[in-house]
Design goal:
26 helices
Length: 804
Amino acid sequence: MKELTLYIDKWYIIGAVCTDGVPRLVIPDNKEDRYWLYFYEDTTNNEIVYGRDNQSHYRNNEPHYYGDIFSKMTQSDSHFLYYNRKQELCDIFKASRILASLRESMDLTETEMVETYVSFSKDISDDARFLFLTKVLGQNHFHVKESVARIEHLTLEHSVRNNKLKDDGFVLVLNACNENLHVSLFKKQGKDCVLQNEMVLDGYGRDLRSRALLENVVGCINQRTNFLSSTSDLEKEYQRLEPEVDNWLVKLDNVKNGRPISLNNISFSGMTNQYAVMVLKNDIDLRTHIIVDDVVREIDSFVKKSKVNNNEVRDVVFLGNTFTNKQFLESIRSCYILNDENYLFYRETELPNIIGVYSVIDCSQFSAETKAVMANGELELVRKQRAKEEKDRMDEAKRRNQEQQEKDKEAREAEFRYNEAMETVAVFERKQNYAQMLDWAKIALTHRPEDKEAMAKKEEATRLLSEQKVKQQQYNSIIQRAEASFKEHEYQDALSQSDAALNLMPSSEQAKMLHDKARKALDDIAQVKEYLTRADLFLAQKSYNEALEELRKVLSFDDNNEVALHKTSEIQEELKKQNQRIDTLRQIVNHPKENTEDFEKSIVACQELLSIDANNQKQWTECLAQLKNDRIKFNENEQLWNLLNEQIHKAIFDEDWLKVVECTEKALSIKNDDVLKSNMQIAKDKLMKQQKENSFKQQINEVKALLVDKEFDEAKKRLSGMQREFAGHSAEMKILFKQIFEEETAIDFLKNKSEENFFDSSMNEKKRSTNINKRKIQNDDFFGSDQLENRNRKSKVTKDDFDF
């Protein structure tokens, strides 16, 4: 006998055909290992395609892709498109040929009944189960024999039948067949296993190291973007990025210790930006350890809350592909110290064998629960339907209320628009803009079609507009003539015509503008004449700058005025000549003054500058006063210089060299003269020589005085010093040295005479001394050497030595 057994998970369906209790895996049409419940509505080919390849598109929220079918099929407004028609979401199993594939695996036709056993995942709600059993399977000739047995229970039944669970006691079952970790605690007594308690750890059904890496990556990006705010948003991103995590783990495991890896081109669903995340292996290992500790702590707490001690747990059953983390297994083993054979591992490939147990166990044990689940599912559907109807009723009431509010708003708006239109009619009536008045009267009638006041305003506007057209024609004719006159520079006629136009249409901006322009043109002509008259007046006074300023005013009105341009050219030429004359006179004023004639020329030039350089009157007034003062001072210095020159000549003649030097220095302070400088140098040399001779005479007299006083040592010392200073008088000093020597010799001779001849020797000595003195006087005039005087006379300077 053939029976179909199904395990229904939120993301996939695994089927097995049991023939006399022997299960065989059902292979889908796409040759995958299960029916992955990710659908794509191919609107081009009118097909519904299922398969795991659609997962990434669904996770990226792309259109035409569906997933999480069981949570959405209970919503009455959830549909998919098939042949461009909306279909209820529960019909997607038939449209995608999943039901047909299951039927074909049983070798049955469409009309034959398929005997079916179903095991639902805990994640699927009761109302979704009820809908799937009744509408999906029941209406398509699938007879469901049982549907409440949990996959955990079937796993234990399979283990008992294969003699893997031997001892009675508590069995802990960890189910990780999808992203959530389902924890169940059963009590085994004999061959019966009774559920004691259960819980779910959302998001921890995947490999915990993968979980740690996903948390790290998503957390790093979200820290930068703050795009995800809720836990559910984070879980969705974990699921979306899950297909990439295996490749990331390979890269992470192959990197050297301590070196980070870069995970590139990562984005969130709904975001186009891509990011790179740096990951360290040590960080992921640490996060994994923390997650493992948290999960094991939750499991241990769950067991304790079930009032079961750890030592009462006899077996631990692992169901799923993700129980490969060594840290997790070691932590579980540390909590529940069991033999290796008491840790049972079932991978998802063994699910067909597990659900195949359905066909050989006694299902009567589930009858009460089946009724309760079906009743609860049906009740939940009714509740949701009623809630939907209530919501629709509330939405309809809200819609009607909004419609009424819109109508009231439109009425108020119409009233407001009518009043606004009538106010605008009055405004344009005052402005005599009857065309606009007529338009706004029509607008008011659109809001109140039968309104008498608006109709009256419409008729009045029509009449006034007709009268205005006649005036408009007259106005157009006059304004055209006014514009023609203005173009021909007949400003007086243009002014008269624009006045006539304004009489017809006082509010005409064109007529006002033309009137103002004609008036301005006439005023400008009068102003130009005044400026030209004033310019001629300034020209007559040779006030060229003032004349230029008046001509600039003329050109500001009419930049092509020939008279102003011609006069400007003439003035600029005159100013050019004037500036050249000013430069010439400046040079004369600034030329160095060497005589009275130079001062006279500068004064005359300065007086002329006062008359022609009006911009610098103050400068030339001060300059003229300064020149006159300088001329007086120059004349005074000339007179003093001539007087000093005469004194210098007289001092040279008198050989008064000191006076020559003093007068020459004064004269040179007045005027620089090379002849005076030369004469002063000669006088300084003579004065120095004279002073040196006087000093020699004085010192010679002092030496002679020492000789008279017989101070021969001091006299020799003085003479020795004088030899260096007065080398030119060595002959005179040599005579004095000789005289000192003779005096010292005579004294030594007298000391050698005996005492008895004292008197004679004294007399002789006296005679000898008298002779010596006579000889000395003959050789040297002691206090007034005639030879020295004669020598000085020979060196005397005369006035012939000077240049005059």
